[in-house]
Write a sequence for this structure.
């Protein structure tokens, strides 16, 4: 049974603070993803990592950075939080397949509010 | 760029009726199409998926159909029940096969 966990379910931060969101998966998946979920906009990819220390920008990377020091852990960093980063953040993981796409498994999400 | 459009954005049905959600994709190379269900306050969970080598797949009350020529795929839920009420997301694999491109979601409400 795939398990993806996120460090916090709810987080409240102030404008300008540095924010860390952590995600851990226990299925030895190569791929890990960070999405942002806003009403009417679906799931938008912020960053993606296919291996330790490897990262790629997604569709909306501005204002975010990531870190993947271990295969099971993928962190999202807001260097200086702003109110427009108030959102639901979802982490996901999947296997890396040759010439094919695997199912992504999601964490429970972190609802971040920036005041 | 790669795009997945999903319709309708909201859908209300009476319990026992059928519900259909449709998605179109832009990349003809897409070959994997999952559907996720997200209940209120919970994570998206895979309910059914289909690969491009088949045209239809069923799992009890849920089915997905794929038309590669027209580049669209649909989720069909028969005999809907109140517990089917949720947001449903379609997705398609992109040029980068590690990634999924998601639709904007459909909020399904099933009234008793």
């Amino acid at each position: 049974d795939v398990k993806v966990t996120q460090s916090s379910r709810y987080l409240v931060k102030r404008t300008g603070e540095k924010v860390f969101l952590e995600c851990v998966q226990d299925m030895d998946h190569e791929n890990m993803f960070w999405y942002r979920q806003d009403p009417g906009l679906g799931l938008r990819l912020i960053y993606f990592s296919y291996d330790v220390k490897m990262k790629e920008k997604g569709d909306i990377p501005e204002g975010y950075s990531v870190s993947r020091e271990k295969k099971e852990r993928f962190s999202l960093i807001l260097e200086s939080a702003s109110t427009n980063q108030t959102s639901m953040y979802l982490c996901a993981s999947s296997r890396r397949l040759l010439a094919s796409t695997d199912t992504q498994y999601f964490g429970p999400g972190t609802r971040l509010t920036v005041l | 760029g790669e795009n997945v459009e999903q319709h309708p954005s909201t859908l209300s049905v009476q319990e026992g009726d059928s519900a259909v959600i449709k998605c179109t994709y832009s990349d003809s190379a897409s070959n994997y199409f999952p559907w996720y269900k997200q209940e209120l306050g919970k994570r998206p969970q895979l309910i059914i998926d289909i690969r491009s080598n088949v045209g239809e797949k069923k799992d009890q009350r849920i089915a997905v159909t794929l038309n590669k020529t027209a580049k669209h795929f649909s989720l069909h839920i028969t005999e809907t029940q109140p517990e089917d009420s949720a947001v449903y997301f379609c997705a398609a694999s992109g040029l980068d096969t590690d990634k999924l491109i998601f639709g904007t979601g459909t909020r399904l409400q099933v009234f008793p």
